[in-house]
Amino acid sequence: MDEAPHLPGPVSRPAGQIQTRPLQTRPLSPHLQIYGWTVTMAASITHRLTGVALAAGMVLVAWWLFAAASGADTYLVFVRVASHPVGLVVLFGLLWSLAFHLLNGIRHLAWDLGYGFKLSTARLTGALVYLFSVLIAAGAFVLGLMVRGGFGV
Amino acid sequence: MNRSFRTPLGRVDGLGAAKSGTGHFWRQRLTALALVPLSVWFVASALAYVGAEQGAVAAFFAQPLNAILMFLFVLAAVYHMSLGLQIIIEDYFHQEGLKLGLIILMRFGCWGTGAVASYALLKLALGTPA
Q1: Is B81 within 8 Å of A75 when comparing Cβ atoms?
Q2: CA distance, residue B5 to nearest chain A CA (Å)
Q3: What mean pLDDT value characterizes chain B?
Q4: CATH number of the domain that A88 lies in?
Q5: How many residue pairs from chains A and B have C-beta atoms closer than 8 A?
Q6: Does the beta-carbon distance from B85 to A52 stay under 8 Å?
Q7: N or C: at which end does chain B have fewer Cβ atoms within 10 angstroms?
Q8: Is residue B100 situated within a structural domain?
Q9: Is B65 near chain A, with CB under 8 Å?
């Protein structure tokens, strides 16, 4: 350590002298963990996470189609896995992910057209996306459970 | 000295830092727009066939409109997810070789998934009824 004090902000030094203070001690720009959570940044990261979840969900959609194309026995394996409690949790997660990604995606498309950039508007639409994604997912899940007496075959 | 007859605008047209210009951005929005009605249709259809027998699901996709809409859904979804996952990989992996390798693997996985779904759809739509 040299005699330079570890203080943020400009360090006074004699005019004309080349700075010798190591780069590591200079203040860095704050990263993500410094900021408090806002609904807008939460919606942004949730959009990414649900996108990844839905990509994995497409593998299950492909399996569903392949099972349906392979015959009754193969399809029954899919139905058994889907109706297992773990399968139901995954299906609800995917339903919510799709509802969120779809609603927030529409929010993004509106931004692309130049609408909804006002901070209060962006906060409101972000909160609404969370609210309605849960309502839609729950509604769709209950509806699915009611169809043909539920998941059990 | 500029020996080219092309204007500066002409040289950068369609390019940019990623050498792909706005192509990625535009395709992501285009597939997103297509997926708004297609994903709603898919979920509504899937919900209607919860717990159904294989024969009922096969009969659903044997109808031309359903097979075509499902194929469009799979195509748009696979394209959209390959574009989105690419952005995520580019954002979080900075070592060039690893980044490229992950993007290649991801692309293979996405289109492999699409190929499985497409094969199954073709079989359901065109295959002889069981």
Answers
A1: no
A2: 35
A3: 90
A4: 1.20.1300.10
A5: 108
A6: yes
A7: N
A8: yes
A9: no
Is B4 within a domain? no
Examine residue B12 and state whether it is found in any structural domain, yes or no: no
In a domain, A70, yes or no: yes
Residue A28 counted as domain residue: no
pLDDT, tens digit (0-9, with 9 covering 90-100), for B61-77: 999 999 999 999 999 99
Is residue B84 within 8 angstroms of chain A, CB to CB?
Answer: yes
Residue B71's CATH number: 1.20.1300.10
Which of B41, B50, B86, B107 to probe by mutation at the A interface, max A CB count within 10 Å? B50
Mean pLDDT lowest among A108-117, A118-127, B121-130: B121-130
Residue B14 lies in a domain: no
Kindly tell me if the per-residue pLDDT of A1 is higher than 50. Answer: no
Q: Is B52 on the interface with A (CB under 8 A)?
A: yes
Q: How much is the pTM? A: 0.82
Q: Which domain range does residue A109 map to?
A: 42-149
Give the CB-side neighbour count of residue A151, counting CA atoms within 13 A. Answer: 19
Q: Which residue of A has its CA nearest to B29?
A: A109
How is chain B classified by DSSP, letter by letter?
Answer: ----SS-HHHHHTT-STTSSTTHHHHHHHHHHHHHHHHHHHHHHHHHHTTT--HHHHHHHHHSHHHHHHHHHHHHHHHHHHHHHHHHHHHHH--SHHHHHHHHHHHHHHHHHHHHHHHHHHHHHHHSPP-
For residue B76, which amino acid is it? A
Distance CA A51, CA B33 (A): 15
Hey, is the C-beta of B126 within 8 angstroms of any chain A C-beta?
no
- Please tell me which residue, A20 or B61, carries the higher pLDDT value: B61
pLDDT at A7 over 70: no
The domain total for chain B is: 1
